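Aim 2 progress update. The chain analyzed this quarter is reproduced below.
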Amino acid sequence: MAKEIKLDANGHRKFGIRDSVAYAAGDLGCNMSFALKSTMSIFWTQFMGMDLWYALLLIVVQVWDAINDPLIGSIIDADKHKYKRNKFLTYIWAGSIGLIIGGACCFLPFPNAPVWAKAIIFIAGYVVWDAFYTVANVPYGSLLSLISNDVKDRASLSAWRSVGSIFGNMLPMVILPFIMYDENDNLIGERVFIAALIMGLLGFLCFQFMIRNTEIRVDTNVELNEDAPKFNVFKAFGNFIKNRPAVGATVAAMGMFIGMQGAATAVTVIFQSYYNNVKISGIVQLFAMIPIVVFTPLARSAVAKFGKKELATFGSIVSMVAGLGLFVVIPNNTNLDLLIYIVCQLIFSLGLGIYSTVSWAMMGDAIDYNEWKTGKREEGTVYSLHSFFRKLAQGIGPSLVLIIMVAFGYVGANEGNQLWDVAVNMRYIVAATYMFSAILQFIGLGLIYNLDKKTLAKMNEELGRDEE
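Predicted structure tokens:
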């Protein structure tokens, strides 16, 4: 006999673990494609031999991001068609199909091609991947605010999204270094391309699981009115700038991604040339994720007791302490240095984990804040602008860090064989990048984001949102 499905007062399936696991699968799908982006710098500098060209091209493709994210977000907001289930789920389904091959387009292995051909391959591949990723990711992020109105449900969804993100990063982080590098710690580019295809397919399957198990409980139906004013993307952008929670959460997210993506190339280099064991880099980073995994089940009760802003701000302070510790460098004893590095990574990860488990719920609240102040939700536009600035950090961060690395002696054509002084410089660059990341998070969460526990309760009461 089939188990009876419990319904709420509105006839929807009651919120439960199925919703959380399904939402986590969505970020798992995103990260199956996105996680390889941290390999992009090594692939294009060491295997494709682009060095500074890569840093410049990465900045160029952010122009596409500037058009891509807000444009797709505004299209979604302005789309009033009646879909069988939900327009967000429909866009996610379309984006997930493109991501099967989208990620692999960034890793077409032609190291002997002329520089101009490599530039075209990179730009075309990135544009294709980024377009499909945005079509899937922007509505996915907006979906959180539609699955439930309850603050604790949203905290649970945000925490489980972090779980999806963690597992989405674990596969490439731990397994791929053993596959992609040879015995001399040099990258084998052809294997990266194959891995990207496999991960694209896995991401598609994760998205399909999420789509089939997602219940939309917040009514977003809009009655079509020919006299209603047309959607204005510039006005929506102005509303975003006035939305302090959205701006604060975005600054914090930019800080987080500058730390995660900006330091990625330098981290690989220090394991290649400073610790002389690139294959353990994934294991070390996996070990650093333990605090995030441990904190995730506690997120829902911690939010109810302390509040999202309060928790996230505390997390940023913890990360700043760890950032200071990473400046303790002992080049004449790399074993002790590795121990210090691992301990500081654990502490940094604890702070990051506290923030990341509530970060998406904070954006859900920022969407509500937009409705509270302007009378319009504009989920797609708010989230797409948030996504745009995140992507800006993901692009500009690695570019600037790579330029700094080259200034301090890094030579991509030498692959993993950097001079010892250069390797030591990379160790300091990693510490500085993580510290800058933590400071930006504190500014966004502690100084800009203004939805503390008391203000959030007032907003939810006036919007008629559930608190319990």
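Confidence is low (pLDDT under 50) at residues 222-229. The chain has one domain: 17-217+233-454. These observations will guide the mutagenesis experiments scheduled for the next reporting period.
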